[in-house]
Amino acid sequence: MSDVAALLHAFASSGMAELGPCFDRDRCRHLLDLVRRHRDFGPHLFLSEAEFREDPQLLGISPRGGRNLLESLEGELAFIEGALVFRELLDHLLGRGWEILRKKLVCAVPESWLAPWLLEHVQGYGIPNLGSFVRPEYRDLTYFHGIDFHQDLIDWAGRAVNFATLYVYLDEVTSAESPLHVLPGSHRHGGSVFPLTIERYEHDRWRYTDDRGRSLTLPERILTGPPGSAVIWHPCLVHGTKPNTSGRPRLSLRYLVTQGPSGGGLLDEVNRTIDGPLRLDVTQRHRDADGNVVLKGNTLAESGS
To answer: 194-250, pLDDT tens digit by residue?
Structure first.
């Protein structure tokens, strides 16, 4: 079985495939160096409490066209986007007409960067996207402080599950640097509205109950690894991260890649095996229409080690 065939087999059975350190480590570190030349990372990226209270911006804070740090580094991504494993895997998974829907840098922010008022403010947030608290000129990448278990459908109300997420670590990621926590097989019941109903079952297992009341007991994989390590997953796969306790930012690439208009590839076959919704008109209920958090709770962050 070829490497790509093995990855496709894993995706078909578990809704995800770990590519391992498949991208050049030195090129990842070079890209990381270039990012750091563009951005002096540290606590100064954040607004003061007075500045935030004066004009809180809760919506429209994510990277977008014209405000995305990767746009200035487009030529530096060829070692990933042109890699044989990248293109061959996506050809088979999504069909030959696949397209990159969105790509951005993600920063898992060290807890030590956050002022006491800010830590208190986001305490218990399920999706603590820190963009609202970052100075506007720095909102060209996404900043998080741990993310509770969720599915990537959360950002795509009304969209069919015709895409996949590819995540690439640019630096060494240990258990302290907010590694991904994934639940293989959690895609099998389709989409559910966030926050998800999930509880610790054993030390390394979770019980996830979908919106129709059906439960799955699932293993947990914590994805640490060297620079260039990557993973790809289905939009209904349950995953999250804990806060970064390392003292240094964890910078990663996040790609959303979609099928072309005619579909095709293994994703269609996987979707036919799913017993549950493949589209949600409402994907979350933790924020109101103005972006205010109305439901708190972060099962993963509160679960301990």
So the answer is: 999 999 998 889 999 999 999 999 999 999 999 999 999 999 999 999 999 999 999
What SS3 class is residue 239?
A: strand
Q: What is the pLDDT of residue 22?
A: 96
In the chain, the amino acid numbered 100 is I
d(CA 243, CA 116): 15
Run of H or E residues at 300: none
Distances (CA, A) of 131 to 46, 137, 229: 9, 11, 26
Q: What is the pLDDT of residue 1?
A: 42
Supply the pLDDT for residue 305: 59
**Other CB atoms within 10 A of residue 197 CB:** 15
Q: What percent of the chain has pLDDT above 70?
A: 99
Which residue segments constitute the domains of the chain, with CATH numbers given?
3-42+61-303 (2.60.120.620)
CA angle 130, 134, 138 (to 5 degrees): 120
Looking at the whole model, is its pTM more than 0.90? yes
Cβ–Cβ under 8 Å, residues 160 and 181: no
**DSSP structure class, residue 179:** -
Q: Which segments of the chain are extended strands (E)?
A: 16-21, 99-108, 142-144, 147-150, 163-169, 180-182, 197-202, 205-209, 215-219, 221-223, 229-233, 239-241, 250-258
Alpha-carbon 52 to chain mean position: 26
Query: Distance between CA atoms of 58 and 134, rounded to whole angstroms?
Result: 11
